[in-house]
Each structure stands twice: as C-alpha cells, then as structure tokens.
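Handout, page 2. Input:
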Amino acid sequence: MNINRRSVLAGTAALSAGAAFGLSSIPARAQTTLTGVTYLPPSYADLAYGSQGFVDFVNENHGEAVAIDFYDSGRLLSADEQLPALRSGNIDFMFHTTSYITRSLPILGITGLPGVVGPLYENPDRLKRGSPLFELINTELQKQGLTCLSLGGGIMEPEYIWSAGDPGIRDLEAIDGKKIRVVSFEATKAIEDFGGAAVRIPSSELYLALQRGTVDAAVANISTINGRSIQEQVAQVYRVPVTAYGIGIFVQTDRWEAMDQGIKDAMMAGVEWFDEHSAEEANVEYYEKQYWPAFKEGGLEVVEPDQAALDRFAEVSVDVREAWTQEVGEEVGNKAIALAMGEEA
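Output:
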C-alpha cells in the first residue's frame, strides 16, 4: 500500500479521536499514541532543542501512559497546514512559532510588537506558564477553541536588521527606500513606518534573495541567520529589536480536556520541562555563547543602536501597537502591553 500524507492524516485522525475520547480498540493496558508536529528541522538545533526535548522527556519518562509520534521538518504538515490540521483534529498538538500565526491568532502578536519585545525578552518571567500575561493569552485563544500549554518560558532573542552591501543599514534613516525581508505582520508595519519596502520571503529562500539583490536586508532572528548560513551574505547587523517570536505548544481545547488525566499529567510533565528550558537554552547556550561569538569572529559588523534610536523606534512604532490593540480589542490589547512592559494592567 502506498503511504502518503493524506493516508497518514486519515489514520492519524482516527487514532487521535480514539485516543482523546476513549474509543480506541487498543486494549486499556496499552499506551495511547498522540501525534505532534513542527515545521522546524533538526538543523535548527537551538529551536529544535525544546520541541525534541519535550518529546524525548515524555516518551522516556512517561511511556507507560502515552507515546508521542512526532513529525518534524514539515514531513507531515507544512507551516501553513499545521493550524488547520489542529483545528480539524487531524493532529493532537503542534509546536509553532508565534510570528507565523498572528494573522489567525491575533493575541499572539504581543510576542512580536515593536517597542514591547525588548522588555519582554529581558524579562522572560512575564511570559512563563501561570503568569498574568500567559493566562490572558490563553483566555483569548480559548475563544477560538485552542489552548497554549507553554510558550517555552519566554520569547526568543528579538529579530534585528541584517544587511548586505556597504554601507548597509546602520541607523533608522537607512531603512528608507530599502527592500527588507520580513515574516510577521508586526515587522511589516514597523519597516513600512520607516519608509522601507517589506517583502515576505520564507527563510528557505532568503539566502538567494540576498545573494541576487532581491532584498537589501532581512529582519530575522539569529537562529535563521545561522540555520540558513545567511552570515555569508550579510555584512552588518543593526541590533534594533524590530520584532520577536515565541515557540508554543498548542492543543485543541475540547480534545485536550477530554483526554485521560494520566495522559494529561504525562504531557504536562513535559510541558514543565519545555517551559523551563526551551527559550533559556536557545537564548543563552546557543545564541549568546555560540552564534554571536562565531559571527563576530567571522567579520560580521555589529551596530548597536543608541538610546535615542531605541526611543525613536518605539515612538514611530506606536502605530503598530495601536493597530494591534484595535484588532484584539482595546481593553485586552492595552492590558497585554502593560503586562509585557511590567506595568500594572
């Protein structure tokens, strides 16, 4: 029999439904299998550390209760297919970067708002499980039938502006007229507010886009730069925190609540591990200790913005924040921003 994605998804749907609602023909003594996905490949060792670590933790420590069938690298579903598959019940959970799904789940935009991501990155406890901001995010997600089990204990290091050529982008004024690669809506708005032309290009095509001059620069996290060898095509990075993202574990609320308590306990043990280790490991062990030193040694020019530039960026980007608060509702949006900034909501 030929096995393709359609047949896998069909089988997964039947298995998952049985697992969630106790309809499986598997004897009660056998473990339940849950299917999880991520589009990120193992070559992104910094980002894969958390997702693969979660899977390994659950399988190795709670295998008597549940087994996780895990598909990375988009082998089962592409980045754009994951959320629809979760909603339809064809998978049991997914890891996803928040920047890819803020159009569908606007509350996740708080993880990428210009002027907010700097303080949020520097204070990861504000996004850990159980924090007021994390609970607010889940309240909004659950209105769409989804639950976030964890956002990895914080956002990843913010996305900066990496540019090719000489002089490249070394200040905010240099953004004007440049073609700059973006992914998220929040980054798009921020670049456009400074006169740049935002071009949405997936990371898999970024190397050639810079090499051919399709874009002059890219808004990207250091993980993308390292994972796609973009350091070979850029000469400098302007470290103004344009946007950011977190990596979350998402489930369908009804299916999650219907699962056997033993299965949920096993999964939550892995969630606690993920919340403690995912963002921390990437930001410190990979970025701070490995990637940045290697890039600087390789000749990358690192341009640090002064406080005046940071203040101006935050001021100009107020339009992005206002547009977002209008989308999620002013009360919710203002509360989320206040919590992210460490203010009283």
